[in-house]
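Subject: sequence -> structure tokens, single chain

Hey, anyone have a minute? Need the predicted structure for the following. Not urgent.
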Amino acid sequence: MLRSAVTALLILTAATVAVPSAEAAGEATRFTIVGRGYGHGVGMSQYGACGAARRGWTWQRIIKHYYTGVQIGRTADKTIRVLLAESQPVVRISCGRTYTVDAPGADAQRIPGGTPATVTWSGSAYRVKAAGQSWSFKKPVVFSGGSATLRLANSTQNGWPAGARARYRGSLRIVRSGAGFMIVNHLPLEQYLYGVLPREVSPTWPREALRAQAAAARSFGAQRIGSGGAFDVYCTTRSQAYGGASAEAGATTAAVDVTRGQVPTYRGHPIGAYFFASSGGRTENVENVWSGGPVPYLKSVADPYDKGSPYFLWPESPLVRSAASVSRALGSSYSPPGALRAIYVVKRGVSPRVVKAYAIGSRGVRAVSGQALRERLGLRSTWIDVRTLSVSPSGTVAIAKGKGAVLRGRTFPALTSSDRLTLRFRIGGKWHARTVPASAIETRTQSLGGGRRATYSVYSMPIDPQGTIVYCFAVGAARSPQVTVKVR
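Reply:
Had a minute. Here:
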């Protein structure tokens, strides 16, 4: 019964039916993106390290696996400067014990514990008010609580709202910058790590994974001490996440203490120990992610234990987006002339993350790096596969009964012998599919400039519906936009 009903409503013929061209008839395109991993892909995979630790790896083995050719060395517990906030019109600080404020060339002023202090700008000097007193300083002011933590009642870049009154070890330096204040936390490297680890990994993870994270974070911070300017590192993932004393946890603090001073080194120096959340199964060479040349210890390595990551394969994969939404996300810098048709990958790294691609439009192309794609489209990583499928006509169209029509489209990249293109159609609330024959598919190429060419496939299927039917083309998990065909 179902077979005869389908046949009655959909007759696919070999006859050629004259219809407008795909573009003229309103071609619509849909992007399907499949991805894996989370983060830039360089250095240590945090979920991979966690998986390795669960299988008995020591933290030293974990470090030497992800950072090629390194040794375990030592580094001093120097002061690191962490940017907490910028453009602050007023700074509010307090401490549970007596604390001080001073500036170069000025006497230190004592402030009673529990008394809040405010910093404002008088137009030519820093004005500090506390406990009914007021002091003026010509140079940046520094608050210190000694062994006690300071409380900061300002919203910070690490996510603490002003109302949290987040606690910080060390001192807080307030620097006038532009029209506001910059707040910089100065503290010993080891104490800084107390506030880094619980923001980067879960304190519930195996202790060897926490220790590997401590050694990597310590090396990353040590390499940036003395960077110049008013601070060394950001408190966000732009450097490494840092939540101050308010973020500290016992298990991560213990990992810092057990590995105290120990870092991965290359030729005797602490390395730039990059790390990220999840590799998807393999890390990437640094030169395939950021500009600059190869770095001997930042090479692609297999990451078999990353499979325990919730992002090994993206949980919402595939991502489905319209051409219009992708074009808007790319913006004027990367969106090509005309209607966006595809993101076509021309170079991949070892992993294989996308290194370079082209955004292809109906009237031109534009090159885009893998990192730019990730940032503009809000993707977790650059380890992606992108397929586009189009259909024309699109939307809702009406045809005369018995006249039939042809549905056309294109797909990037070109179909291979293992790909099965189908025309799907919905009848009675259920979807059915017919395979598009090879004779109805043609492979074409398009110039990308510089000697590069993109290959894609165009296809067509004649239809002769006897009633209203919804159609779309499909390859694997990818779907074209739907078209509703009504019969007059």
